[in-house]
Design goal:
This protein is α/β, with parallel strands linked by helices and about 220 residues long. The chain is built from 9 helices and 9 strands. It has helices at about 35-45, 60-70, 85-90, 105-115, 125-130, 150-155, 175-180, 195-200, 205-215; strands spanning about 25, 50-55, 75-80, 95-100, 115-120, 120, 135-140, 165, 185-190. Strand 6, helix 5 and strand 7 form a beta-alpha-beta unit. The chain is globular and about 45 Å long. This is 2-dehydro-3-deoxy-phosphogluconate aldolase. InterPro entries: Aldlse_KDPG_KHG (IPR000887), Aldolase_TIM (IPR013785), KDPG/KHG_AS_1 (IPR031337), KDPG/KHG_AS_2 (IPR031338).
């Protein structure tokens, strides 16, 4: 059903989230009934990796239905904070996990889930701590507030082996600046999902915005 995915060097990972598309849509689903048409629009626009955040009660059902009904989608769970959320998200069909930060307990749970994951960091020390544990692909969050492209450029010298997915405060105007950096594999954002378009179920507009995002690199 799904096309082969780019592989990752991370321990236990079968593919790299950073290699799927230049932009990973960060999706907050309020109504599970919107999940499938929304995901279909994103995939049709060229954004197959879809991060459904665990911020709403509808999120588990959204992950489940996207996984079951949208060929080509690589659905993951974001805002993963606890081991229980890891277990529940993978059981629902999440194929990757994203967290805003990382603790030893959460890292152990994500490793045990045996799916690719992007633990969040915002400092060199946090990145080094994960690097010591064999993790080389990370989320940089909150990207704009934590220093943006200037900070990531500074990390590229001492930590060239680390690649990031910056998320937080990124839009279509700034995404190309991040994507031009050698240590950035993709960016996360939600600008292709404007609230008014989702509320109106204007999936054609979502698809158009997704296509524009997919063409950023």
């Amino acid at each position: 059903m799904n096309a082969p995915l780019p592989s990752s060097g991370a321990p236990g990972a079968s593919f790299s989230v950073l290699g799927l598309a230049p932009v990973v849509p960060v999706v907050v689903v309020e109504d599970a009934a919107d999940a499938v048409p929304l995901a279909r629009a994103l995939v049709a626009g060229g954004l197959p990796a879809i991060e459904v955040t665990l911020r709403t009660p509808a999120a588990p059902d959204a992950i489940r239905t996207i996984a079951a009904e949208v060929p080509g989608a690589v659905v993951g769970a974001g805002t993963v904070l606890t081991p229980d959320q890891v277990t529940d998200a993978v059981a629902a069909g999440a194929r990757f996990l994203v967290s805003p930060g990382c603790t030893d307990t959460l890292l152990a749970a994500m490793r045990a889930a045996d799916v690719p994951f992007l633990p969040g960091v915002s400092t060199a020390s946090e990145a080094m701590a994960l690097l010591e544990r064999g993790v080389r692909e990370m989320k940089f969050f909150p990207a704009r507030a934590a220093g943006g492209t200037a900070y990531l450029k500074s990390l590229a010298g001492p930590l060239p082996q680390v690649r990031f997915c910056p998320t937080g405060g990124i839009g279509p105007d700034t995404a190309p600046e991040y994507l031009a950096l050698p240590n950035v594999g993709c960016v996360g954002g939600s600008w292709m999902l404007p609230e008014d378009a989702v509320a109106a179920r204007d999936w054609d507009r979502v698809e158009r915005l997704a296509r524009e995002a997919a063409a950023l690199r």
